[in-house]
């Protein structure tokens, strides 16, 4: 239905070429989904696949929360969305969540090989659910100008990348783009931070927060309270009905957008409120004898804490908040997972008392003691099944 003209006949040679081409595409699709723990892979193939997975997320050893936890859990993270567009025209891209990216022509520093009329891909990963922060594994701490450590409470995080023929494209000097990120909480405005080459967040200034209609209304229509319906995601369109109401079955509600008009390059960006005062939790680890990766997932806020432990642990978290602690143990040999173990707490409500995990307990600093985490052997296939993993640790996909 795309206006492609079909020929009534095809000779045998063309048929063979066509079928062979389809087989090549299918084979390429299957190869792209190979599991790096497949015992039939050579060490070189295994490392290539792992590198491809980590490159999508810009992973490096310095930002892995556990010995191999981030690289394994990243397989459960939100998929990268890719949208082709003509960089010679002003473009607005709408993502699956409803976020909008406005790219003016001339923004990108196109390579000399670029041909007029060609398209560039904008690729985005959105981190807007509680569990997305767990699977992303991106550091959520910030050291301010006075050297004080802060925990981030996020209003949403994303990674942008532009590619032409699989090669990354940067920005022209002085050019920026505009983003409206579908918000995950009714608060803000947030400061905007960019993750630098040193894997540290840089404060880029104050963003905006705006509650906007999640559909297009004609100029003589208004958004009434009765139209504030839940947003289900996807591209947005609306046809006007009599009286200016939404078409049956279409979502036409309000959603918070976190807005920033000075995105000056690709990479990781974060809408955040830094919290200089937080608390810490401590507990015992049972079931394994080795280094364990500890991750604290915010449930009444959006964020993540990292720590390591052997027998016991201490981890920072927001004060007076709900959190779940997840502990993973991974033993890898020759690029293959030899042992995987997993444990989690119930939902913990943290104390409303300032404390820091790196300071010794005393009258002015005492971590909240929580029940032990029993870490049990788990099937490594969990790291390839988002629903099964979340069910195992008792989390909803939210």
Question: Would you spell out the secondary-structure blueprint of this structure?
Answer:
Blueprint: H1 12-31, H2 43-57, H3 69-73, E1 81-85, E2 91-94, E3 100-103, E4 108-109, E5 120-127, H4 130-136, E6 141-143, E7 149-164, E8 167-168, E9 170-171, E10 177-182, E11 191-195, E12 201-206, E13 208-213, E14 254-263, E15 267-275, E16 279-286, E17 292-298, E18 304-309, E19 312-317, E20 322-333, E21 336-344, E22 348-349, E23 368-369, E24 373-374, E25 376-377, H5 386-393
Parallel strand pairs: 16-23, 16-24
Antiparallel strand pairs: 1-5, 2-3, 3-10, 4-9, 5-7, 6-7, 7-8, 7-15, 10-14, 11-12, 11-15, 13-14, 16-19, 17-18, 17-20, 20-21, 20-22, 21-25
Give an overview of the whole structure.
With 398 residues, this protein is mainly beta. Helices cover 14% and strands 36% of the residues. The chain has five helices and 25 strands. The strands form five sheets. Strands 1, 5, 6, 7, 8, 11, 12 and 15 form an eight-stranded antiparallel sheet that branches. The chain starts with 11 loop residues before the first helix and ends in a 5-residue tail after the last helix. The model is unreliable at 1-39, 49-68 and 215-252 (pLDDT under 50).
Instruction: Flag low-confidence runs.
Output: 1-39, 49-68, 215-252
The CATH topology of the domain at 77-211 and 256-274 turns out to be Chondroitinase Ac, Chain A, domain 3
Sheet having the most strands: 8 strands, antiparallel
The CATH class assignment of the domain at 77-211 and 256-274 is Mainly Beta
Instruction: Please state the second-level CATH architecture of the domain at 77-211 and 256-274.
Output: Sandwich
Order of secondary-structure elements: HHHEEEEEHEEEEEEEEEEEEEEEEEEEEH
The secondary structure category is mainly beta
| Helix fraction by DSSP (H/I, runs of at least 4) | 10-25%
Oligomeric category: single chain
Tally the helices: what do you get? Answer: 5
How would you state the average pLDDT, rounded? Answer: 78
* Strand-residue proportion: 35-45%
Number of strands: 25
Shape: globular
What separation lies between the terminal Cα atoms? Answer: 37 Å
